[in-house]
Amino acid sequence: xxxxxxxxxxxxxxxxxxxxxxxxxxxxxxxxxxxxxxxxxxxxxxxxxxxxxxxxxxxxxxxxxxxxxxxxxxxxxxxxxxxxxxxxxxxxxxxxxxxxxxxxxxxxxxxxxxxxxxxxxxxxxxxxxxxxxxxxxxxxxxxxxxxxxxxxxxxxxxxxxxxxxxxxxxxxxxxxxxxxxxxxxxxxxxxxxxxxxxxxxxxxxxxxxxxxxxxxxxxxxxxxxxxxxxxxxxxxxxxxxxxxxxxxxxxxxxxxxxxxxxxxxxxxxxxxxxxxxxxxxxxxxxxxxxxxxxxxxxxxxxxxxxxxxxxxxxxxxxxxxxxxxxxxxxxxxxxxxxxxxxxxxxxxxxxxxxxxxxxxxxxxxxxxxxxxxxxxxxxxxxxxxxxxxxxxxxxxxxxxxxxxxxxxxxxxxxxxxxxxxxxxxxxxxxxxxxxxxxxxxxxxxxxxxxxxxxxxxxxxxxxxxxxxxxxxxxxxxxxxxxxxxxxxxxxxxxxxxxxxxxxxxxxxxxxxxxxxxxxxxxxxxxxxxxxx
Length: 532
Prior knowledge:
The chain has 532 residues and is mainly beta. 0% of the residues lie in helices and 44% in strands. The model is unreliable at 54-80 and 82-116 (pLDDT under 50).
């Protein structure tokens, strides 16, 4: 009997459905594929921050996120798991009654549970995060609110700007020694001294503030670049100097171009624009990680672009797009400066980043969320991975603070911020490349017999499921073990065998890893046997 063996998993989401680099897979979600061990395991889940109980503040997730995952037999094949599957709460023992839902059916609920008496501090969609030098992280939303997060993950609304939607924000410094938090509404630029007054009555307290001559635009993204604060200002760039000087027309772009996103590179401002006549085809967001990257258009296209070369890299699997504040480096950005003693200031600057994180929304169902692109080690490949599956109406901004990923979202009329949950793993799904039957003489259809998964001794409460699809039609079907069990969940066992018994020319495998709390199954290889 012939066998396909899959024992590499670090190749990320492949460019093709039937082939790729070693370890590539067709699609996956919540998989930890950048470890020191090349295996399949679950990543950390996401949890809501900024939830407020009726009695006291709470950072607890909505209890509506729990599901039952009974291993009991079911009389018929089950459909594929929900594309929004996340962490599940398994039953520790078999139930004599049929399972109502043998597949992981939990879809992340972005909104707090009303039954738990929880509400949220957020009243709009945060479009910008600023990790400030005063030790707080600030969020700026699309209705004028400013929020503050402390090191323990507690959020508070600290200010509301009557000018409405905040379209850009950053921290910047003055030669006087003062540090300011800057933000822009539609046509006004404001600032507040940090740390300053806790009641925020020092907003625009300096003479000449606020500035009220910005050009109306959808976005006023701002960055530090070349010793100044540079601000996207429709067909111009505005600028605040280190000497507190200000101009709303520091640079006039080529007519017809609108500044949307900015990157500081080697002390220079790199401007991503959209055409006023066709704004859906412009640069939505850009970042310098290990390589310079830009997300272009509304169909998920990712490009390498360094002002000399341009190369299409990949499309996010479900299409979609990101907002200008919807990309960051996984590590906090650090910089090298080059300076000569005879120079008045530094003459060159290099930013150091490793792996880019993208908050992708408006994608196909089951394909939105936080994607990573890059590598963690020199000998690892550059790959794309869906680190956190998260379907919402819109993802606003993303940042990484002390190793915690923060991503803002809107789901219907609900708004929130999700953060990496260091105490809980997420249910992970792996969809392997198409396995094709070998050519036979005389021609006959191949029978796929069974599949084996080999793993570390299975932790208590965790389980592994095996699903398959044949000839690229229909839904995934769940394979069953001896005794009609729907999942492998024998404590401390290291091999599970699933019966298949179908005829097909193309076989598509899917593996679902169900964690328990903060423990995860870990698969080292999978073998799929067929008649040769």
